[in-house]
Each structure stands twice: as C-alpha cells, then as structure tokens.
Amino acid sequence: MRTDVTWDPGREDEPTLHPAMHHIAGLGGYQDRKRKPCPKSLWRGLQRIEDMAQVFGKLRAMERNDSRPP
User: What is the pLDDT of residues 18-32, one digit of tens each?
Assistant: First the structure.
C-alpha cells in the first residue's frame, strides 16, 4: 500500500460544517433521517476517525521499518 501520495483538495472540495457533521455522524451510526444527528452519533463517529488514524499511523511506521504484519 502506498502512503507517500499527497493530495491537496483545494478550496472547492472543502466541506462546510453541515455536510462534515453529517459525514462524521454517519460513521457513528446516524442514518440521515428526519432528525439532526445526536451528540452520541457524533462522538462515536469521532472515535471511528481516531481508530482509523491510529491504524494509518501504524501502517506508516511499519512501512518505514520495512516490516510485515504478523
């Protein structure tokens, strides 16, 4: 897996607060129905993002050490 790729989204690709909040809440189980996302789904979504960041960090460290997973 390549992790040396850089990406600059540019100004037009940056989400505003409303869609960003819905994307994060979606990771936490929010299904985009009639109600706004609750704090619990936002919290769970942020936890999932933190989990993904930790995995990505470990993969980068393994790539730098040129080691393979057990």
Answer: 888 999 999 999 998
